[in-house]
Amino acid sequence: QVQLVESGGGLVQAGGSLRLSCAASGRTFSNYNMGWFRQAPRKEREFVAGISSIGLLTYYVDSVKGRFIISRDNAKNTLYLQMNILKPEDTAVYYCAARGPLQSDYYTPDPKGYDYWGQGTQVTVSS
Predict the structure, then answer these.
(1) CA angle 28–34–40, rounded 5-degree value
(2) Could you give the angle at the alpha carbon of 89 between the alpha carbons of 62 and 107, nearest 5°?
(3) pLDDT truncated to tens, each residue of the chain (127 aa)?
(4) SS3 breakdown of the chain: % helix, strand, coil, rounded to 5?
(5) Helices (H), the chain
(6) What's the half-sphere exposure (Cβ side, CA atoms, 13 Å) at 46?
(7) How many Å apart are CA 99 and CA 110, to the nearest integer?
(8) Whole-number Å distance between alpha carbons of 116 and 94
């Protein structure tokens, strides 16, 4: 089991920044590829970014590319999402998720491809 706890969400004006954190416990964090997802009201959960187990590879969806940065500190068992130039359409509950080490790819946009999830943290961007 891997336990994930997100933090860092909040209310911010458009153009501002937030840094989300995801603290992991349980099994060896560095064995897992990680991802960030978000879910806005009445919408499906959407993949945002992924990072490989030791942080060498990253992937972003087009809507956040150039604005968001995913990173991890395996010594601290923590995943991060730095969000810059935030827009109202970034408003959502943000979730971190762990993808098992036996998967062939380090990320997938399909939520079913992740084994463990955090409880989410709310991000609200006002216009």
Answers:
(1) 135
(2) 40
(3) 899 999 999 999 999 999 999 999 988 999 999 999 999 999 999 999 999 999 999 999 999 999 999 999 999 999 999 999 999 999 999 999 999 878 889 999 999 999 999 999 999 999 9
(4) 5, 50, 45
(5) none
(6) 17
(7) 11
(8) 14
